[in-house]
Amino acid sequence: MEVPVPTTQKMRSQLPSYLPLPSPCTCPAGSVLLKDQIPEEQYEELAQRRAKEFQQYKARTTSVLSKLLFAAPNSPLQYPIQGFTVQPLTTTHIPGLALYAERRSSYKVSLNVSKGILSTEIPAEGVTVQGDGQTSLIMESSSLLTLNDLLAKVSYTSTVYHIHTGDLASFKFENHEAVFPITIKQPHVPVLYDMGKDISSHVTIITKTFLRYTELKVLLNSIRQFYSNIEVIIADDSFEPEHITGEHIRHYIMPPAQGWFAGRNLAVSQVTTKYFLWVDDDFVFTENTKIEKMVEVMEAVPELDVVGGSVQGNQFYFSILYEQGEEMEGGCLYRKSKGKFHSLPGYPECYLASGVVNFFLARTDAVQRVGFDPKLQRVAHSEFFMDGLGSLMVATCGQVSIGHQPKTGKNPDAARYAKFRASSRSDNTFKLLLHFFKNHLKCIRYG
């Protein structure tokens, strides 16, 4: 009688051998266990759907190039250990192949691949070649010089079209074997931004408004005090939208109450400059709101994607600590307030972090790739940086600041707005359930 194999064991047996087995992650004290937020009668079905989706995610994001390779301590084989990249379905010469061995009556080497074919030139007299144009190529000669000349002319052609994958080549001589990676990648077409000399050609200011036209008009007036020509994009999901007019203002009306992230997505989708500056609709520009300083940092450190400032002296930033965890349980995530890594080279007043305050300059194309989840309507900010972890390089620079408008009570929609602004218990539960499935988390802690 066959003994049933537990689900986790089945999944582990199907993992590629080059991937390390997932291990449990540790939930810090104070973490929310996300499975506890799910009704018991729904958990099993939801967990199965999540497991299936996670396997598809891994298939898209893991590669044979993840295999851990070790260089032999003493090998007569020479080969490219890193950086050999080919275009899909394209013949490419393999650089650096050679054999260094003591004198023998005959020298025999073999090369094997799985996602392509190997070929070399017509061999000279005294050399035998087997498998030319196949996945396994064997070459033998009594002359080491002639063999190395032939090895220098070996080419690889991928037979699998994929925009980013890889192959592993096995190179053997007697009892010596070396394995080296071949990256198969479709090159990107560059997307460049033609930046003029004026700040308005560098940056677009974007904001999202909802039932706060009084505050929005104060913000717009303050922007024009310091930046008369800069483009401002407004995403508006108010119930009875007012028409906001003015030079260099684009006002987009949305269906009512779509939420903060839906508005951000709309606004960012319309940006045509290299950078955008995100501001809330109740902020106010001051003499310290120097967008140029933020652009200077981003241009000097092109690896950066987001630079945050401070809001009325509050330089809020955080780090995200994440462990992947086991297949069926998911990962552990800890968002640590005031967590940072180290100062930004060349800018000691700036620090690298995982997320920043809700006033930041961002690289448009980088943020468009991550996006803002429109399912999150009221409880959202850290979630964007969680989704961008591993994709966005983030820094915080407190020397650039923006003001926050005082609450004056002049907004006629203030009471109505407050009902939507405050998050309910169901909003928070929904967010935790989203983290359970979408982010494959076991637990989360805010500290």
TrEMBL record:
Query: Which parts of the sequence belong to the Glycosyltransferase 2-like domain?
Result: 204-318
> InterPro entries per the record?
Glyco_trans_2-like, Nucleotide-diphossugar_trans
- What's one GO MF term for it? acetylgalactosaminyltransferase activity
What processes does the entry annotate via GO biological process terms? UDP-N-acetylgalactosamine metabolic process; UDP-N-acetylglucosamine metabolic process
* Pfam families named in the record: Glycos_transf_2
Which protein are we looking at?
A: Beta-1,4 N-acetylgalactosaminyltransferase 2
Species in which this protein is naturally found: Lates calcarifer (Barramundi)
Taxonomically, what lineage is the organism? Answer: Eukaryota, Metazoa, Chordata, Craniata, Vertebrata
